[in-house]
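This section describes the prediction task in plain terms. A model, or a person checking by hand, is given the sequence of a single protein chain and must write out its three-dimensional structure as a string of tokens. No templates, partner chains or ligands are provided. The sample shown here is typical of the held-out split.
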Amino acid sequence: MIHNIAPHKLDNSFKITPDPSGGLAVLFQESKVLLEIRGEQLCIPSYDKIAEKYGVARQQFLCSLDQQDLFLVELTKMYLDASYDFFPIRSLRRDQRLSREQRFALMTAWHLYTWYHNNQYCGTCQTPLEYHKTMRALVCPNCKREIFPSIAPAVIIGVVDGDRILLSKYAGRPYTGYALLAGFTEIGETPEETVAREVMEEVGLRVKNIRYYKSQPGGIDSNLLLGFFCQLDGSNQITRDTEELAMANWFQREEIPVEDDNYSLTFEMIALFKNHPDLFQTE
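The expected answer:
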């Protein structure tokens, strides 16, 4: 999966005013990120090069990748030469021109960037927020309210019926490939309850034997993905929510049209069911 970057290591520990020299510069523009183009490869730009070429008006520490710190930057001037360009953040998740560890670092950076961007004023007294000086938080200088990064738990669901698994396709989204059912956990709800509710809402099926499999940090949607397998309970007749899903069908193991992409929890779970029937014999 995308976060499996060993021997590299992403460190999200907060640092107090680290020296940006020798670090990496992360600049987002809408839903795109600035990258340096090196022949056929892409990389996160050097902070020193960006500062020299464009000037840095503002910076904020994000995280560390191995021995390099990443900084969210705002530039004093903006013009692009052939060495730099903006790339859609969502398409970079599988872009092999960028190293796996830098892709994961950018997912984390995007998560933090959207949190900073969406929390500029205090929700209690409307005062502009400031960066906390000693921890990863925003603080209101007036009422002292502290705001911490938000993480949205969501479930990925492998619904199994004997030698079949339920695959779907989203409706009205840029991604048109196969997926498992998924959804965000609501207030006062356990992830297991989310699984049962989402399956009923999206395909009208009841499930049992809900079992946790594995998790994956999402980043792009500020989420934490929790993977579950469950067994069909009762009728296998699908009643599809046409606003959420463009397709939902049962697939026998030999019919499953996808393999593990070495990136997503969804495809790892599909491939596990497809290639390891011995793990599902009790279902």
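For orientation: Residues 100-118 form the longest helix (19 residues).
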